[in-house]
């Protein structure tokens, strides 16, 4: 009796438990063989849009449209394909998923985009205000009412700004960068001299163009000198940005390294002769000599000529230059005086040109000022004689 009880405890009570423990006899085992997932099924037309394998289980497959998984047997795949849930899920999604993101582009749309790019280029080339596009866009639609391209134009100041900066400007910069990667070039830079709160530094590259067979000077970059975001001093912001030689040099180099242009292609550098640019102790020119051995450094010829002319003018009487400045100061702020001068110009059959103002940089305007005074000399003599006799002003004497 005890033996029979012991045998009952040792043997599994049901075939299910024996099957789980893999203790079935060869004749008792299920003869159905499990089917592994086959990647070849994904290439079939009826399965390729929805069938995927189940991760970490080679015996199951998954439908990405119904979000369910099942046994990876061909019969199960076909049954699921004909199921009501799968048909409804398939009809609810587009046959081609890429059709959600791409579509056949209409030829008229391409012509509209081309027209918008050309119009933006025209605005930039002729220095027309971007705000004018708010009115020009609607005006073109009214003038060319029978044109499908004009009706499709949708570009105002925001879009024209984006097209010029991100399409035309970026494409131009990429083409120029590819050109500079393959040939030698020189760098020319100078800071702005206008009166404003923003101090900018312009960078121009000069190289030999194989297309035009000429040496060309092309705009490269415009940099805000005192902009903290453009600093190359690290991640910490600069409290008081200054136009030091190191900062200007780092900016120049960064504009080329960002475009992956070899610095070995730089063979020349030119700028004005200020100490920051042409100084010997770790300033812009000296750093270029260390980085690019054999580079040619030149000062701006115009600035050098200005210094020479300024020193030469010191030997001339000061009254000559003061006369040019005083004539302009006496006339430019009074419309009545200008009208009276115009009468003398008409009387002497002279062209009614205005008197020019001498700028601080003599070589930029002094020659033109002297030529204009000599051209209008007889009219100026009559005008000041008449003014002195009638008003007895000390300035006209």
TrEMBL record:
Q: Where is the composition biased (Polar residues)?
A: 1-11
Region annotated Disordered, chain positions:
1-34
The organism's place on the tree of life at top rank: Eukaryota
Indicate the secretion signal residues: none
Composition skew (Basic and acidic residues), residue ranges: 21-30
The protein's matches in InterPro entries, at most eight in alphabetical order, are given as: RNaseH-like_sf
Q: Which SUPFAM superfamilies match?
A: Ribonuclease H-like
Q: Could you tell me what this protein is called?
A: DUF4371 domain-containing protein
